[in-house]
Amino acid sequence: MAKNGSVGLDSLIATVPLACKALEDGKLAYWELGNEPDLYKTSAQGAVRPANWTEASYDAEWLNKTRTLKPVLAEACPDLADSYEFFGLSFAGVSNSLNPVTAWRDGIDVDQDIAQISIHNYIGGATQPGVTLQGTLMNHTSTVTSANKFLNVSNILRPYGLPFILGETNSLYNEGAPGLSNAFGAALWGIDFNLYCAANNVKRVHMHQGTSYRYQSWNPVDSNTTTKGTKAPYYGNIFVASMLRNLTTTNVTVSNIPRPSIYDAAYTAYVDSTLARVAVINMIEYNYTSSGTPSPRPSQNYTFEVPSGCETVGVQRLAANGSDAITGITFDGYSYNWELDDGNPVLLSNVTRGESLVVGMDGLVTVELPHSSAVILNLEYS
Fold first, then answer.
1. What is the DSSP secondary structure assignment for residue 211, as one 8-state letter?
2. Catalytic residue numbers?
3. Contact predicate 180/174, CB 8 Å
């Protein structure tokens, strides 16, 4: 969509048969027309729309192009024409040169072919002054402040009845920053961010990836800057998946538990209205590679009241040597390092797992958590 004029439209039309044939047989979820159009008239790479290009201008152009493409798709791939649906908006944020609420209310979905409302979000920039692991990523208040901007838009658009998603997101835009986005602390941030989204009705979160990007979960090939292998953020993904489990077969509800410190976060997962799991994230920075002999690693106790009938609690820990670690990470005793078994889970013999906590007569259970680590508590009912 960024290419304006007849040449850009002709090119777009010519690619439809090529794209749709490659995406037949169930490979396609939805189409997307235009990436981050709210930057088209302000982009640092060069403006591609005039300053007077408004939300109404964008809607008119979007509708014209989607209507033009539909018969082309129907001729080339008739099976896909019956499910002609889009991610809507795909804005870079909620406070750029186009307002997503205005664009929506001006009628972009008048043809009712938008399936999901998509917004992009980053908590900061890779080269932005003042960005730090503790102050920016390992900081629940920072995460909440960033997320609440798009959640405000989500709440305004909720009456329209469409799922709200993050079509692109990760820690720091411009591919992440070394020592921040590729460190274990970024995995802890990813847990906090994704569970906060789940607790606030964000239906999908697409974590942006790219070869040799600092914030990627894995690098599929060796490059001149990055080795092939599993990266620290991947372990945050595994943790979140273990907290949510299979959402297609169970009714899971996630809630955020308010905490007094900005350096920790906690979440509950209810299955069919029964408390099943509690996630706790300690984000107090522990830097084990700092110069000199590392100081003893502090820990903190967390106590929760559990429902009656819960007598024991199983423990799954996400651990590393410190928040600045980029290797040596495990979840529940398993490593996913490429070097061990091509990224498949390998149970390590030198990592504690299988812990079980006993619930007290007062219904309370306490878990000790080292600084810069996370845990899932699995409630076991009698």
1. T
2. 55, 168
3. no
Token look-up 């990813």 returns 190
Q: State residue 98 phi and psi, 5-degree precision.
A: -125, 140
pLDDT at residue 49 tops 80: yes
Crossing angle of helices 184-199/232-244, nearest 10°? 30
Token pair of 303 as six digits: 């106590």
pLDDT in tens, 250-284: 999 999 999 999 999 999 999 999 999 999 999 99
Sheet holding 86-91, edge to edge: 86-91, 114-125, 164-173, 202-207
Confidence (pLDDT) at 198: 98
Distances (CA, A) of 281 to 115, 129, 358: 34, 26, 21
Give the CA radius of gyration of the chain.
Answer: 23
Please list, residue by residue across 104-131, b when 16 or more beta carbons sit within 10 angstroms of its beta carbon and e when fewer do. bebebbeeebbbbbbbbbbbbebeeeeb
* Number of residues that this document lists for the chain: 382
Q: Is 138 exposed, middle or buried (0-12, 13-18, 19+ CB in 10 A)?
A: buried
| Confidence (pTM) | 0.96
For 205-237, the pLDDT digits (tens) are: 999 999 999 999 999 999 999 999 999 999 999
What phi, psi does 70 have (nearest 5°)? -60, -50
Q: Which helix (H) or strand (E) holds 71?
A: helix 55-76
Tokens of 331: 């979840």
